[in-house]
Amino acid sequence: MTAHIQAEKLCVEFPIYENSHRSLKNTVMHLSTGGRIGVNASRHPVVRALNEIDLDIRDGDRVGLVGHNGSGKTTLLRVLSGVYGPVRGRLDITGRVASLLDVSMGMDPDATGFENIYLRGIMDGLLPRTIRAKTDEIVDFTGLGDYLNLPVRTYSSGMMLRLAFAISTSVEADILVMDEWLSVGDAEFSEKAQARLDSLVGNAAILVLASHNPKLIAKVCNRKIHLEHGVILSDEKLAPVASDVAAAA
After folding, report:
1. Cα–Cα distance between 195 and 218 in angstroms, integer?
2. 55 and 237 in contact (C-beta within 8 Å)?
3. Does some domain include residue 233?
4. N or C, which end of the chain is more exposed by having fewer CB within 10 Å?
């Protein structure tokens, strides 16, 4: 199976339900750097976060998404991850998608570390036997030991990130979706995490990465897509650069 992402005329809109014209006016003013304002079929005002996006991303592509805050980068990543659905247009994805948009998403603070491994695995679509096969490796990678028997609400933020990162990066993916490059934990764990992330990116057939770091985009990606107000302004090829990704990040 060859990984592939194809989108045609993809649109994503968010309706605005307001109680007064004044509050709507204030909302519109604060959206001046984000998506475009329109109305849907029910005449409700909407923010059009993505407007007729066309994409053709193939096996081997490393795509960097650039643009100011509110340009539609994260919305597009969430659509590719299945978090948002388009209101119009077509999206076809071939291959397993792994999302590193928010590694702590879906963690239950009242569940133990071990229980969260299973919960996140189920969320990622894994079968119970697959989760069991991965558990020992995840446990070893976290270095949390007996803390995994405790509710994660008792963890420090660093411990929570260790667990979330270990779970999120344990899934092999054909398509990897990332919002900025991850940096996790203290120096010792960060080095281990960086090596794992490099391997995950290297083994993925497709990478889609949103970042404000032009050096990282230049070093990691072979394509750069510039988004503004939910529209693609440019899609350019980048010359390959052989270098250390960790240094760029």
Report:
1. 20
2. no
3. yes
4. N
Residues 196 and 212 in one domain: no
pLDDT one-digit tens code per residue, 216-245: 999 999 999 999 999 999 999 998 655 455
Q: What is the pLDDT of residues 117-155, one digit of tens each?
A: 999 888 877 889 999 999 999 999 999 999 999 999 999
Total structural domains within the chain: 2
Low-confidence winner among 85-94, 119-128, 168-177 (lowest mean pLDDT) = 119-128
Structure tokens at 96: 């397993």
Cβ–Cβ < 8 Å for 163, 109: no
The Cα–Cα gap between 148 and 146 comes to 5
SS3 string, 187-224, reads HHHHHHHHHHHHHHHHHCCEEEEECCCHHHHHHHCCEE
Counting beta carbons within 10 angstroms of the beta carbon of residue 99, is it exposed (0 to 12), middle (13 to 18) or buried (19 or more)? buried
118 and 173 share one domain: yes
